[in-house]
Amino acid sequence: MLGVRRLMAARNYKVVDKRRRAVTPNYFPLVFFRKPALADEISRARWIWLCFVEILFGAELLENIVITVSNGGSPEEHDPERKYGHPQQLSLHIPGGIFTRLFHDQIVQLLYYKFYLQYLLITPVAKPVIDDANGLIYVERVRFRLDKALLYQVIAFRRVYVATAVASNMLADLAVYLFSQSVLAAVVAGALQEVVRRVFKL
What we know:
- The structure is a single chain.
- By secondary structure, this protein is mainly alpha-helical.
- The protein has a domain at about 25-155.
- Helices cover about 50% and strands about 5% of the residues.
- The chain contains 7 helices and 4 strands, in the order H-H-H-H-H-E-E-E-E-H-H.
- It has helices at about 1-10, 25-30, 45-65, 100, 105-120, 155-180, 185-200; strands at about 120-125, 130, 135-140, 145.
- Strand 2 (about 130) and strand 3 form a beta hairpin.
- Helix 6 (about 155-180) packs antiparallel against helix 7 (about 185-200).
- The chain starts with a helix and ends with a helix.
């Protein structure tokens, strides 16, 4: 009885915080459109392909890179204030898995052109060696690390990946339904897409 009285007597004050968060940028253009400075570095066709690879593996790459923030320091550059994650070669920022092995070379391109040059999420400790004569960039001995000051962006990137996956799923379901005029076919198509998405996590 006393508990009921206390419940009924609860004041239920409204919590007020009128201070607005600063306007955050739209991450969709950042993910899908090259910066003008990158137009000479990577072609539009390859950029589109890397966007596709990013939608498949981007969330896992972010998670793997974020794990490095628990450690700091670098044999090449002292980091006493621990402003960066543990530096590793690009290959070591890729989580193990069947499909990450199959797409390994493409994911390395993704990390370099998008996570490094486009997003500036990771930075190299040493300068990569660029061979203009053969069109190669050597990063085997170059370690890249996450700037901890940019950790807040991880959630925004994940939301882009999720929203893109949901939108593509809905569009595919709609296309199947319009073509087949069958709700069952659309449901099966949606289920198959989910199965494929989960298979790529193996």
